[in-house]
Write a structure and sequence with these properties.
By secondary structure, this protein is α+β, with helices and mostly antiparallel strands. The protein contains 6 helices and 8 strands. Among the domains are: 59 residues, no CATH class; 121 residues, Mannose-Binding Protein A, subunit A (Mannose-Binding Protein A, Chain A), CATH 3.10.100. It starts with a helix and ends in an 11-residue tail after the last strand.
Length: 305
């Protein structure tokens, strides 16, 4: 029995130890579960924190805010995107330039064709024999005609200038005689002042080449009732014309010339006793009327025989 009691106590002891082991295992498993739960919860919190950090801030409300948001997102493009955009812009500009150049050349070609047709129609109408000629031959003919028109236009301009000059001279009472023009000026100057005036008018203080001219001058001077300077003066011991031929015929009044050194310049008297005898020498500083003489432009004026 004693042996049996001993076995009974031993079994109780073993049962107790097993219970202790089981309870310890349960505690350990619960501890493990709790630690795992803590770890998982911490991991969840950390991952949520990271997600919150990665999330972009919500866009601001309003049109301007949206535009600003768009600009901000696009303001830092990659190098490849920037290069692509620049290249596209360059190609676009080049394409626009080529198109504009093409349009310009097309318009230019159209205008040239229309101008050539106008020239061709005009030349054929003017000269029907050009009907079968090509454009190059017709254009050369038109160029020649244009050169002729330019030359004629220049001549017309020269004639117009000459006409205006003649009109101005006639208004100043220039008078024609034997293919020359004469101005009987009513103002008064010294001989040198009269000479200078005539030169400014591209003329000369008058000279007398023959009796016919002398009679004409005497008649006009007599009508004016005043003496007038002529271009004769004494220089270096002889009489000379201011501009004109050598002195051959002279038409001095009776007793003239006299006191040549003191009176080296000559006037045409308005009243003289004899025809073709009206010259008188006087001092050059005396103020008198004067007579200018001018030869018209030979291109526009011819003397009939």
């Amino acid at each position: 029995m004693v042996g049996g009691l001993t076995f009974t106590e031993a079994s109780k002891t073993s049962v107790a130890s097993r219970s202790n082991v089981a309870s310890r295992s349960n505690v350990a498993s619960r501890s493990n579960v709790a630690s795992r739960s803590n770890v998982s919860s911490r991991s969840s919190v950390a991952s949520r924190t990271r997600l919150k950090r990665r999330r972009k801030p919500p866009p601001k409300k309003g049109k301007y805010a949206a535009l600003l948001q768009y600009i901000t997102e696009c303001s830092v493009p990659s190098l490849a995107a920037t290069t692509a955009v620049v290249l596209c812009l360059v190609l676009f500009c080049a394409a626009v330039g080529v198109i504009n150049l093409y349009i310009y050349e097309q318009n230019k070609m159209h205008l040239e064709k229309r101008a050539m047709k106008t020239i061709r129609d005009f030349m054929i109408k003017r000269e029907p024999s050009l009907q079968n000629k090509n454009d190059s031959e017709i254009f050369r003919g038109a160029q020649k005609l244009a050169d002729e028109l330019v030359a004629w236009n220049f001549k017309v301009y020269e004639v117009q200038v000459a006409i205006e000059d003649l009109i101005r001279k006639f208004r100043l009472k220039w008078m024609p005689h034997a293919g020359l023009l004469y101005l009987f000026e009513v103002r008064r100057k010294s001989w040198f002042g009269a000479k200078e005036f005539c030169e400014e008018e591209k003329s000369w203080l008058t000279f007398v080449e023959d009796a016919g001219v002398e009679e004409f001058l005497e008649k006009e001077t007599e009508f004016a009732h005043e003496d007038s300077w002529i271009g004769l003066h004494h220089e270096n011991g002889k009489w000379k014309w201011h501009h004109g031929p050598n002195v051959v015929d002279t038409y001095w009044m009776h007793g003239q010339p006299d006191k040549i050194k003191e009176e080296p310049c000559v006037i045409l008297k308005s009243h003289c006793s004899r025809t073709t005898k009206c010259w008188e020498n006087i001092p050059c500083n005396v103020e008198k009327r004067w007579i200018c003489k001018k030869m018209p432009d030979k291109r526009w004026y011819t003397v009939k025989p």
